[in-house]
Task: structure prediction
Amino acid sequence: TFLQDLGMRLKVPQVTIATAIIFCHRFFIRQSHARNDRRTIATVCMFLAGKVEETPRPLKDVIVVSYEIIHKKDPATAQKIKQKEVYE
Result:
């Protein structure tokens, strides 16, 4: 899945990936799938899971890796996010 791929690329422990999955499930129990982009929510959950499990990764790294996964068929688009600094 997206979260497992994201976690492996970020080199976080399996427990951090599991925590991110739990966070996503809990979020979508109460919130609409139609109103919220699942990949954006998953990215945020991975970032927060890293903090909770004391295996944090910089926000920039989480966003860049997530963007690369989402746009893996278009490497040029994936490179654009590395040039932006709106998330710092």
Observations:
- The mean pLDDT is 89.
